[in-house]
Amino acid sequence: MIDVADNAELIRLTAAEMAAKLRAGEITSVELTQAHLDRIEAVDGGEKGLNAYIHVSGEEALATAAEVDAIRSAGGAEAEALHPLAGVPIAVKDLIVTTGQPTTAGSKMLEGWMSPYDATVVEKIRTAKLPILGKTNLDEFAMGSSTEHSAYGVTRNPWNIERIPGGSGGGSAAAVAAFEAPLALGTDTGGSIRQPGAVTGTVGTKPTYGSVSRYGAIAMASSLDQIGPVARTTEDAALLHELIAGHDPKDSTSLPDEVPAFGEASRNQSVEGLRIGVIRQLQGEGYQSGVLARFQESLDALKAAGAEIVEVDCTSFEYALGAYYLIMPSEASSNLARFDGVRYGTRVTPEEGPLTIERVMGATRAAGFGEEVKRRIILGTYALSAGYYDAYYGSAQKVRTLIQRDFDAAFETADVLISPTSPVVAFPLGEKLDDPLAMYLNDVATIPANLAGIPGISVPGGLAADESGAELPVGIQFLAPAREDARVYQAAGALEKLLNDGSQPLWAQIPELESQEA
Amino acid sequence: MTDTIAEAEPLSYEEALERFDPVLGFEVHVELNTVTKMFSSAPNAFGDDPNTNVNPVCLGLPGTLPVVNGTAVESAIRLGLALNCRIAESCRFARKQYFYPDTPKNWQTSQYDEPIAYDGYLDVELDDGEIFRVEIERAHMEEDAGKLTHAGTSGRIQGADYSLVDYNRSGVPLIEIVTKPIVGAGERAPEIARAYVSAVRDIVKGLDISDARMERGNVRCDANVSLMPKGSTEFGTRSETKNVNSMRAVEHAVTYEIRRHAGVLSSGGSIVQETRHWQETSRTTTSGRPKSDADDYRYFPEPDLVPVVTTQDWIERLRAELPEPPAERRRRLRETWGYADKEFRDVVAADLLDEIEETVEKGASPAVARKWWMGEISRLANARDLDPAALGVAPATIIELNSLIEAGRINDKIARQVLEFHVDGEGSPEAIVEARGLEVVSDDGALSAAVEKAMEENPDVVEKVKGGKLKAIGALIGPVMKETKGQADAGKVREIVLEKLGIEG
């Protein structure tokens, strides 16, 4: 029998610490995995539970864990060959397909659908033998910034369960923040890893476009989507990134590069002489004063540690949100065309009238998709229509080029760029549900990186009070040139160390959650 | 609009051509014979059980991504070069979007404004040897759709009880070749249409990039026809007859559409821009779905694929490796082989140029090669419902058979039997002749005895020969053959008879 108090400590370790203890034989993967399953059991279900998971796969996770333990206790070459993270459990955003576990994309459209194949990142995780705890909640088809647009209920923010956990990857972020998993996979199209990271006090990276294979991530916007790591520390995120990165012949847009040593970069933690560019356009209006105060403190700390702080102008960022909300829905309207009830997933037959294929497709899509998804499909279909294409999709692509040029120029004077990740801290559940434009503004600082294909990370920058006085996490974003993901880990690792100096890391300060166990 | 006449009795072809000039245009789809599909590693194979040659990618399952088949790109470049096209330095794929259950992603990955090959031409040889140049607008790569089978009376999706879909063909690589409008064809329009499709088929076959079997849909033709009043240069409204899938059908469809358009236009009506279906039995076309230039496929560049970049070195290497153009090759072979026009046309029609060429290369005379391939081999193949090439007769076998005849060891009739035994797997002609004892009876003693016997039994014939009617010897050959079980050489028999009668031959 495992002691509950021990369990509480076990799940509060970082993934790197868990891995070290597993390697040293101090704990077993089965203990570790069971501890997380118990935690999920305790805090995830029930009316006020976090609902970070759509599906929990305890049996599969424990089987993997037992396999790792057996290999480790047998010793020899096979034990030597185990991946450093082998046995450390992980959660997978339910946009990424898995065999043996359902994949819903947070939509009724895929209710009960079982993928016959694994995503490339899932294959890598299985090969490295990380027990998969389950599939995490998300805004339907990753469309949203609050995880309120899921057909499987809202996910709550463990810092304050009446607040949103960010989105679309609120499930992965909340699970990691609440110790329901030490590591998780997310996807980031406009900020879906970084913004949830910011509002839950966790670390999330959007890798360089092409760094991680997209094969098996249900596409929202193909030219913007990227799978990335979610963790409590920069080092953990870097280690997971290293594991999932690398060229994949199944993804034509994946980079041929060797995977750099991100873990090592995260442990470098030096900003001596590093030129850090503050983006003038990503501060000021629309940003909460508390967020800006934490941002300024981060800058001061970095400067004090030897970084050179410079200001950079990215004038075309003004159009980034507009361009994003044309390109993303255009691609999404196309990517989601396949959900028609003909081959898999939900099929709805109209109750009245003739039974034609068009009517079945129509009824299926009407019933299977939620409101936000429909909104984006309609927007994208319109933007790609003959006669409008040049004005909308064409212009948006031009803005994209301008944004890339802004970044190119900025990276001539700065090694990394910095901004708040999100203009606001976690807002109350339901607050922006009826105001899509207000919801979209959450991504104003994260979207440029997706449009330019460059890497970005969000690291905790402390707590700030919003208008209501609630103290909630603030995220600091670092950006680097394409293929220089190591730089964001170095900068983020350094800031993390500076801010944690003399105090507990932010993630350890999270309030105790009430057990939801009946 | 309601008053517009869209249907009328077709005019006669002659009358149509007196009043109008036809303008043609063709979209020919060529299915490539690559091992795998255009964007996935699923097998590209014909005739297997439904939905067996599929994988998550060509089924368009959530999360899957396409990867371009490099061999298909190379085939497209080679075809582009053979069609005298310019090859794009860089080109992209695009999504052509429409909802239809044979298309698993509800878009077809195709090329839109950036085809891999463009601005080419094809010189087409007509029946009388005249050359007609067809300008090529573009050749682009795309993927095929699955195959729908509609259960119910109509055979169409409308009114079907249910429909079955087979995705084996989904994602099979296609190259679509689009011509520029073909003007100046005049009364030869149908012949040009047939010759053009035939020339395209010859080229893809010569390049070995497609099985090129029209009956299997490896080469599919959409024929566009419009008419201009004589003297006008402004194109009329066109119709697009889909899937005209034989040379003859192409010719007939163009003829019919010219007559139909002329009928409608002559009675003051106007042509509806639409797709039409070819009806093989009635040799007519019927109305399909209306098609306007405003069909909105919401094309946009396929973001899951990177541009295809072609280097000059690659193109030049492929150009240097191109086979001789089929038309040039035919001219060369006709001249070197010295066949009569009809003989050569028959060989081409029988699709036996390759086999005869190889047989000649191995040492047979063109006449011998033609005799065997067009004669006994074709007959045996036909009886077995096979292509002559599929019978497995090697050029060396033909040469061996022929040398047995020339050496006088077997006669023609026996040779044909030997060929059949060979096809049935009895070994080389030499071995068959030995094993079955088919050699011509050259033992003078035995033959002499047989001749003597025949002469004794046919005294009247002997008298006639003695009287100078040498042709009468023929009547003795039959009995001798019977006696020797067909293994006598007719010439030798004649010699012996004359010798016995003391007549100078």
Percent helix of chain A = 25-40%
Strand ordering within the main sheet of chain A: 1-3-2-4-6-5-10-11-9-7-8
Write the H/E string of chain A, N to C. HHHEHHEHEHEHEEHHEHEHHHHEHHEEH
Overall 3D shape of chain A: globular
Q: Unreliable runs of chain A, pLDDT <50, ≥5 residues? A: none
- Number of separate structural domains of chain B: 3
Per CATH, the class of chain A reads Alpha Beta
| Count of discrete structural domains of chain A | 1
Structural class of chain B: alpha+beta
Distance between the termini of chain A: 21 Å
Number of alpha- plus pi-helical segments of chain B? 16
Strand content of chain A: 5-15%
Structural account:
The complex is a heterodimer of chains A (518) and B (505). Chain A is 39% helix and 12% strand. Chain A has 518 residues and is α/β, with parallel strands linked by helices. In chain A, helix 9 (234-244) runs antiparallel to helix 10 (262-268). By secondary structure, chain B is of the alpha+beta class. Chain B has a 9-stranded mixed sheet with strand order 2-6-7-10-1-11-12-13-14. Chain B has a 3-stranded antiparallel sheet with strand order 5-4-15, with no helix packed on it. In chain B, a hairpin with a 5-residue loop joins strand 6 (117-125) and strand 7. The longest helix of chain B is centred in the middle third of the chain and has 20 residues, at 247-266. The interface between A and B is large, with 43 and 31 residues. Chain B: It comes from Nesterenkonia cremea. Chain B: It catalyses: L-glutamyl-tRNA(Gln) + L-glutamine + ATP + H2O = L-glutaminyl-tRNA(Gln) + L-glutamate + ADP + phosphate + H(+); L-aspartyl-tRNA(Asn) + L-glutamine + ATP + H2O = L-asparaginyl-tRNA(Asn) + L-glutamate + ADP + phosphate + 2 H(+).
